[in-house]
Amino acid sequence: MACSKHFQELFEGMPHSLAGLIVILDGTSAHNMASLLEFMYRGEVHVSQESLSSFLKAAEYLQVCMFCHS
């Protein structure tokens, strides 16, 4: 299972009472975000050669890892 250390730290630090929270992610596109979420939920994703560089940069920015320990 993959996860994002960035998201873990972000959401663990938020009060549970925040409804309608909006998170703005500089450094990634909607397409890369969708691919990263697919990867985190399914464990695999198909990324085109043209998108690979920006996909990997977004994964690095969001600290996505294959096996995260809580």
TrEMBL record:
Residues 1-49 form the BTB domain. This is BTB domain-containing protein. Keywords: Nucleus. GO terms for biological process: regulation of transcription by RNA polymerase II. It comes from the Eukaryota. GO terms for cellular component: nucleus. Pfam families: BTB. Signal peptide: none annotated. It comes from Cotesia typhae. It is found in: Nucleus. Its main location: nucleus.
